[in-house]
Structures are given as structure tokens and as C-alpha cells.
Write a structure and sequence with these properties.
The protein contains nine helices and 17 strands. By secondary structure, it is α+β, with helices and mostly antiparallel strands. The protein has three domains: 200 residues, Heat Shock Protein 90 (2-Layer Sandwich); 82 residues, no CATH class; 181 residues, no CATH class. The protein has a nine-stranded mixed β-sheet. Helix 6 packs across helix 8. It starts with a strand and ends in a 6-residue tail after the last helix.
């Protein structure tokens, strides 16, 4: 039986004019159209948990992509109708499905030169194929014998692939893409996806957000409920995003902060993850953005803005708790560093004590007032005080933990002669100040330099150690000239940085 020629026809000219200019910029988006068609087939059939298979063959003389489902299949009449009614979808009024523009069948042109839709309908032993080629106005419909299906369902074969497509569509990239785009549907168990390349097969698992789950109840609107599943985690350098999910559990956009209305604030902090579900939202024709209609989209923006303060408050609280815990931990490291540095300075005949100074804060830096070089003790001169006395002991030898934050120095572990670190409750314009009565270096959490390094523990440790060194030198050398003070500061920092840990 010869193949039947089916002339392609546009079923909806107005819609064709609207969407033809919106080509798929990313090959993964074009491939996703065929995954959407398989997902819609399961939704229309009322099947949950069924498997969609994405097969990638990039090597060999004939590379090919294939998307396979075990749905109800397509009859020859249905395949013929698809070719004759482009841009006219039967799914427009079906809330269970995503497809509505009838452009998925044309997405193959962003991947390769040929598309074969091979299908076997339920209650039929015949397999039929509709073949389309880029640039041709006719499709071929014929019985398929070489790739006949053993059970009902549909397989879409994409061949004559462009070289750029072969470089982009690796198994790893496709799995990560589908996890982001279809995480909500996968988490609900609507269907499963398996990606195969060569002998390797990987099941796409839904992304599991980490952090504190926010208790935000669904918000009713005239266009249906908006549901929130949001998590706030500490800042740790990991990229986090909030997905926007529309109809049929399919992600419309991966990152809420891509929208201008939410490009700042908590949504761009890399601390908020999860999803916002609003089935009334629609995708643009390219499936990469929200359709900004005059009805559902403004309601979506207004509702999300209403929960934004609660999200921002949680982000701020979590960040503060992490900052406090980090500062406590690094304070303990700084104390260990200075216990070694002060010992080294004592072993080097520490010149920070001079004949005219016998109390903390009264010594010179390098030279005594009666000598032209570094001080050398006289035979009748008393021994200098212990190096730990260069910082006065605090009035309370036991460090009090901060409210709602764990202390890095449990009771009994503290050497009271060493400096402590704490956030300044009454900061000034200075980076830090020394609180003599408690032996504490208070640092300014709002200073631009602190904010610049606070997200990197190694940089923050270096910064805090530098502040302690500054306060140590300034407190113990009030009579020093600027050049002498600078020299001693360098001398101190050289030794401090020798003891900074390479890893935290």
C-alpha cells in the first residue's frame, strides 16, 4: 500500500500569526513539547504513574531522539487530522492538559529535519506513521512495519539532528532540565520520566527543597486557588529558586525572580526554594515565560506580593541565626590563633612592654623613650607580666551564649585572658572597638567591609582576626607614633595569618 500524501494546513490562522515568531531558543524546550504531549495523553486517559521514556542516541551515522509513551495511541484518522489542523488544538478547554496551541508537532524543526510519529491505537494490531520533513508542505501517512509497536502507545522519532542539538542534549542536561520543568508533576506521581542514552538509564526524580517549610495557606481568587510550597534555607552559596507551576503540574518558569515584579527581595536571595501553583496562569507560545494577560496574571502578582513580607522576615531571621552561629564558631578559632601568636611574641622578647610601662595600656611599641632601638631588659628590671595580661581579664570569666544561638565556647573551656568577639550592640562608624571591662572586641555588623566578607567564612575569619589584632595593638600602645604603630600592626598580622586555618 503506497504512502498517502497529506497536505499540511493551518487550522487557526490568527493563532499561527501570533506564535510563529516565537521559536524555541533552547533545544531542550523543543524536546519538552513532545514530553508535554505524552504527559497530556496520560492526563486525558486518566492514568497516573505511567512512564515517559526519552531516548538519546547522539553517536553513530544516524543520531536520533525519541519520546515514547504507553498511552491510548493514535488512529490513522487522528494522525491525518493533526496534519490538517495545525495551530488548532482540541485540548484548549481541557483543564487536565497543558497543550493548547497545537504547535508541538512543529517543534521538531528546532531539533532536526525530520519527525516520525509512530503510533498504535488501542484495540488495533496496526502501527501507523506520520512523517514530516522540514521545508515540505506535505506529510506522508503509511503503515509502519520496520518499527511496529508491540503494544498501544506513541513514539516520536526526531532525526537529521542539527550539530548544535547533539552537543546540548546530553543525558545529564536533559535529566536536570526535566527535573526543574516537571518537578511538581513528578512529585505528585502524575507520571514518571526515564532518560536513556546508550546503556545508561536514569529516572528523573523531583527536586527536594531544603530548609524551613513556610506555613502559608492557599489563597483563593476569582481565577482559582494559588498554592504555596516554600522553603527557606541558610545562605550557603547554593542556587535556590521558586518555580511557577501552571496547569497539569507543569512548570511555566523555573525561577520566579525572572519576572520583573520579583527580581529583588527574598526571591533573589538564593535562600528561598519551592513552587507556587496557579493553574489559571498560561505560558507564552515558546513555553519559557508567563503569559501576561489582563486577568489571571495581575491577580497572581498581587497575591504573591501579599505573602512577600512573611517570606522576607523568615529569610532575615534565618540569615541572622546563621551569622550568630558562624561568629561564635569563628570567635573560638580567633582565640586559638591568638593564643599561639601571643606566645610567639613572648618568645621573641616582646617589645610591646617597655621600662616606663608596667600596666596594660601604658607601654610603647618598639622603642622606649630613653633608647634609640628595640628595648632590652636591664638586670635589675622585673620580669614582664604574663603575655595573657596584655588583655585585661573580663569581669565575668564565663562567656554568656547569645539568645537563640548556640555558643562556640561551652562553660569551662574559655581562657579568660584571651580576647572574645561579639557583635557591637551600639555600633558607631568604626569597624570595631574594644570593651575593656569584659575583654571583648566588638565588631560592627553593619559596616560595609563586614557585609562584603560575611558570606565567605575564610574571608570573615581573616577580617575578624585583623580586627582583634588592631584592637590589641592600639590598646597596648597608646603612646606610639603612626609609623611605629603601623610597623607593629604588620608584625602582628604576619604572625596571625601564619596560623589562619586553610580549611574551616
Amino acid at each position: 500500500m503506497p504512502a498517502e500524501k497529506v497536505r499540511l494546513r493551518i487550522g487557526n490562522l490568527a493563532k499561527a500569526v501570533l506564535v510563529t515568531g516565537q521559536a524555541y531558543q533552547d533545544p531542550k524546550d523543543a524536546l519538552n513539547e513532545f514530553v508535554s504531549n505524552a504527559a497530556d495523553e496520560y492526563a486525558e486517559a486518566g492514568r497516573t504513574g505511567a512512564r515517559i521514556r526519552v531516548v538519546i542516541r547522539r553517536r553513530g551515522q544516524r543520531p536520533v531522539l525519541a519520546v515514547d509513551d504507553d498511552g491510548r495511541g493514535l488512529s490513522p484518522d487522528r494522525l491525518r487530522e493533526m496534519a490538517r489542523s495545525l495551530f488548532e488544538s482540541a485540548k484548549v478547554d481541557d483543564p487536565r492538559t497543558l497543550g493548547e496551541k497545537a504547535i508541538g508537532i512543529l517543534a521538531y524543526q528546532q531539533l532536526g529535519g525530520r519527525c516520525d510519529i509512530v503510533s498504535r491505537q488501542e484495540d488495533s494490531a496496526e502501527t501507523w506513521a506520520l512523517r514530516l520533513e522540514r521545508g515540505r508542505v506535505t506529510a506522508l501517512l503509511e503503515r509502519e512495519r520496520r518499527r511496529a509497536r508491540s503494544q498501544p502507545g506513541t513514539t516520536v522519532y526526531l532525526s537529521d539532528l542539527d550539530p548544535d542539538v547533539l552537543r546540548v542534549l546530553t543525558q545529564r542536561k536533559v535529566v536536570d532540565y526535566l527535573r526543574l520543568r516537571r518537578g511538581a508533576a513528578l512529585a505528585r506521581g502524575d507520571y514518571g520520566i526515564e532518560v536513556l542514552e546508550g546503556r545508561n538509564a536514569e529516572v528523573v526524580l523531583p527536586e527536594q527543597p531544603d530548609g524551613i517549610r513556610l506555613s502559608i495557606s492557599p489563597k483563593p481568587t476569582l481565577w482559582g486557588r494559588i498554592e504555596f510550597s516554600l522553603y527557606v534555607a541558610p545562605p550557603d552559596g547554593k542556587r535556590r529558586r521558586v518555580a511557577v507551576v501552571g496547569r497539569a503540574g507543569t512548570t511555566i518558569i523555573d525561577d520566579l525572580s525572572e519576572l520583573d515584579e520579583f527580581s529583588e527581595g527574598p526571591w533573589a536571595s538564593d535562600q528561598v526554594a519551592g513552587q507556587i501553583v496557579f493553574e489559571s496562569l498560561q505560558q507564552s507560545a515558546g513555553r519559557r515565560a508567563v503569559l501576561r494577560d489582563r486577568e489571571a496574571f495581575p491577580v497572581f502578582v498581587q497575591t504573591v506580593k501579599s505573602v512577600e513580607p512573611a517570606v522576607a522576615q523568615t529569610v532575615h531571621r534565618v540569615a541572622q541565626e546563621v551569622d550568630a552561629q558562624t561568629a561564635d564558631r569563628l570567635s573560638d578559632v580567633v582565640r586559638r590563633i591568638f593564643s599561639r601568636v601571643l606566645k610567639e611574641l613572648a618568645d621573641l622578647d616582646n617589645p610591646m612592654r617597655t621600662p616606663i610601662g608596667d600596666e596594660p595600656g601604658t607601654g610603647g611599641v618598639l622603642d622606649g623613650p630613653e633608647s634609640g632601638g628595640p628595648h632590652r631588659p636591664r638586670p635589675d628590671e622585673p620580669e614582664p607580666p604574663p603575655i595573657g595580661d596584655l588583655f585585661p581579664p573580663p569581669s565575668d570569666p564565663v562567656r554568656r551564649p547569645r539568645p537563640d544561638a548556640g555558643s562556640a565556647n561551652p562553660e569551662g573551656r574559655r581562657n579568660s585572658a584571651l580576647p572574645s568577639l561579639a557583635a557591637d550592640p551600639e555600633p558607631t562608624a568604626a569597624r570595631s572597638r574594644f570593651q575593656e571591662e569584659t575583654g571583648t572586641v566588638l565588631y560592627n555588623e553593619s559596616h560595609p567591609d563586614y557585609l562584603m566578607v560575611k558570606d565567605s567564612e575564610p574571608a570573615l575569619l581573616d577580617y575578624l582576626a585583623t580586627l582583634v589584632a588592631k584592637e590589641y595593638v592600639v590598646y597596648n600602645n597608646p603612646r606610639a607614633a603612626g609609623q611605629e604603630l603601623a610597623e607593629e600592626m604588620v608584625r602582628m598580622l604576619v604572625r596571625v595569618r601564619r596560623h589562619l586555618p586553610r580549611k574551616l
